[in-house]
Amino acid sequence: MKSGFALLVLFCCVLAPHACLAQAVGNNVSGVVLDPSGATIAGAQVELKRADSEAIASAVTNNAGGFHFDGMSAGQYHIVVQATGFKDSGQDVNIGSKPISLKIVLAVAAEAETIEVGPNAGSSQVSTEIAENQNANVLDRSALDHMPVFDQDYIATVSRFLDDNAIGTNGVTLVVNGLESNGPGVTASAIQEVKINQNPYSALFSRPGRARMEITTKGGTPQFHGTLTFMFRDSVVDAANAFAGVKPPEQRRYFEGSLTGPLGKSKKTTFLLSLNQDYLDLQNIVVAQGLSGPINENVPNPTRHFFGSGRIFHDFTPHDQFWIGYSYERKTVQNAGVGGTVMPEAGTDTKSQEHEVNVSYRHTFSGTTVNQLRFLLGHHDLPTTSINPEPAIVVQGAFTGGGAQANFRRTEYHLEGTDIVTRVVGKHELNFGVDVPDLSRRAFDDFTNTQGTYTFASLAAYQAGLPTTYLVQRGQGHVAFMELNFAGFVEDKIRLRPDLAISVGLRYYWQNYFNDRATNFAPRLGFAYAPSKNRKIVLRGGAGIFYDRTGPWPIADLLHFNGVNLLQYIVENPSFPVAPASLAAAPTSLMELDPRTRIPYTLQYSASIERQMTAKSTATIAYVGSRGMDMFRSIDANAPLPPNFATIPNPALGQVSEMQSEGYQKSNALELTFQGAPSKYFTGQVQYRLSKTYNNTGGIWWYPQNSYDPSADWARAGNDRRHKFDMMGSLHPTRFFNLGMALSLYSGLPVDVTTGSDNNLDGILNDRPAGVPRNSMHGPGQISLDFSLSHDFLLSKARDHAKTLSAALNAFNILNHTNDMTYVGVITSPFFGHAVTALPPRRMQLDLVYKF
User: Fold this and answer.
1) Could you tell me if residue 201 is inside a domain?
2) Is the dihedral of CA 838, 842, 843, 846 positive or negative?
């Protein structure tokens, strides 16, 4: 480490003259031009004019939609952008002492329509455009380069602005270049922009704004440009983990880069290549208690990750733009799942591989009609292997030992695609098309619990050899099935007046394995109105219905545990080890789908007031309400009957897990957002969210304490975080360095208090003490402050994309605040009411980025 820092200091000294050179070179303006769907527009004409309308420079956007004007003198300028099939756009810019990065979205052209474009059009400007709500969170390439980003993981960094209450059963919806995807498809430096909650009620997407993350990636360029990134962390300069008896040695070495340029002599064909090799050596901290006393040890958790992606772009004509790409990803993780009360022998090793082919084609039929087709084909293989083949031993709230009993393999071939037609007629911008977010052939090989899992209520019960339950599986663990999700949509954005716009849309959902296929229509509505002549205030609102998706895991479970393929046995109060006779007498457990099950949906509605605060900053106050209808949950349809639990409705069967859609959720939130550049020294966004969420379900695999009275579990939702404050921004106090910062202040999530025993003999260990409601314990809050101190060294005078080296020192959780993950809620646990895991302590990270 010492030699590494010495080398960095020497390198900076050698480059010091270049830093002085940077002060003498003129300022630069760069930007990206996008269409309404977020796709880049190549071949657009960009003209830079003085305040007196004299044209002084022009450029043509590359295949990434990018343009540059370098070496400009300070002053007021006007930028005009023109592209075939799109409306012209004009925007004023004030060039000062700092580089300027712009995002310009062109609307599809109308035959005879003019829309006023104000002098402050652009980002952080209130607008009556439906998709320009100011409580969205948008980070472009310039912002991403100056933020403290841990491990170069931009997706995790921006995900702090997501809303857990809006996320569906299948997790966060990731939209890449307009297509729902499993990942960004490129490495970090090839990401152009990340945004959350843009146009929350768009009919083009399956989930509301704070449940989806939209990513725009870079394209090819007619000249060679690239980025090389080296990132390094070492625990030598980090603080010690709060739960580690001995400070664990950890290190990460990260190499990443991207390259764009022409392919051959023709400027019409370009490429984008991005690669990433990652070496991560972490330690999992075990905090448990066995019969001999406390257990505290560090367990190596190495991860190796490679990702490579290549794309070729070609413009057949100015009206036909096409690209095709291939990506490959490989990842191995050792000792996964270890940590907290999970012992080293109960971990797993995982290996995954994924291949994907992406295709995009855009055709402009006329000045009013554009068609965008995107699809991808992929293959994914994910095997999981238990480190130890022994039966699993779970002592509630004390330790998990033995073997993991988690052998599993998942493989899939999937197709995802969307086709969007945009047509402008008069005051209407019409979008319609089809969306196939998932068409997959999946195979699940389940070899879990072949030796079984013993669960004990307490250490005393374990010492006495008295398990509460024993779960074991026998039979055929292989199933294969097709999963199909389909949607059709239509949306009309109507400009009624220059100060009033509305959006009306309808989306239809269909998923196999469900019976309500004719009724899944989801209407969407949005409006934006500027009541004053100066249009510094915009009133905005909307509402929409959003249907859920199960994902593949529930379908696989229904096919596995049908009483024929994979037989599951749950034995109550067995001997230890279990007697073969008791296992032979145990009835088979099943999993089934309630014939009344419908696809759950969420009704979300909101109203907001947006105010232009300065020329480049806005403030928003918004109310957001939602109601979750027909939400997923499970019950034991064959649970022993109360009050004495001595009788089972069907003695020939064991537990009958029935997936239902009978849950309900209610959420209300107040959001305060400030974003933009209130001064030439600071750019960023601040958001505070006050919310309250109650429900009677925790998801598709969640069971109520009493299957005969699920409504009794109405309480705080497991993700009910009342207070949430986030700030991300960059400070430019001098020309010598940039200071990026991120602050998160969160109140705690609730914790469910349980007995650790199976008091009602249903095989589900979620029983609570008498009179104790669900999620009654308040969990720990979190405080995290991150900083990034960086400087850009100019290595050339080139007017077109100068060569630069950026050096950044990042500090995460610089206050070294102990952020406990959660508290143990099992009353028989020696750790009851305390935490056994925490988020990482203060960590330092060195980033070196070379751009040319």
Assistant:
1) no
2) positive
Asked if the peptide bond before residue 643 counts as cis, ω within 30 degrees of 0, the response is yes
H or E stretch covering 482: strand 478-497
- Tens-digit pLDDT profile for residues 271-302: 999 999 999 999 999 999 999 999 999 999 99
Listed residue (544, 673, 543, 521) closest to 611, CA to CA: 673
AA letter at 255:
F
pLDDT confidence of residue 798: 64
Element (H, E) at 678: strand 656-679
- Residue-wise pLDDT tens digits, 221-265: 888 999 999 999 999 999 999 999 999 999 999 999 999 999 988
Domain that holds residue 99: 2-160
Compute the distance between CA of residue 560 and CA of residue 590 in angstroms, rounded to an integer: 9
Burial class of residue 319 in the structure, from the number of CB atoms within 10 Å of its CB (0-12 exposed, 13-18 middle, 19+ buried): middle
Q: What is the pLDDT of residue 27?
A: 62
Residue 109: the pLDDT is 55
Whether 190 maps to a domain, the answer reads no
**Backbone φ, ψ for residue 456 (5° rounding):** -115, 145
- Selection from 266, 267, 339 nearest residue 296 by Cα: 339
CA trace torsion 132, 137, 143, 147 (10° rounding): 170
- Per the domain annotation, does 191 fall within a domain? no
Q: For residues 549 and 169, give the distance between their C-alpha atoms in angstroms, rounded to a whole number.
A: 6
Which CATH number covers residue 562? 2.40.170.20
User: Are 439 and 555 within one domain?
Assistant: yes
- Residues in the chain predicted with pLDDT less than 50, given as ranges, are 1-26, 110-122
- Number of structural domains the chain divides into: 2
Q: Do residues 101 and 31 touch, judged by C-beta distance below 8 A? A: yes
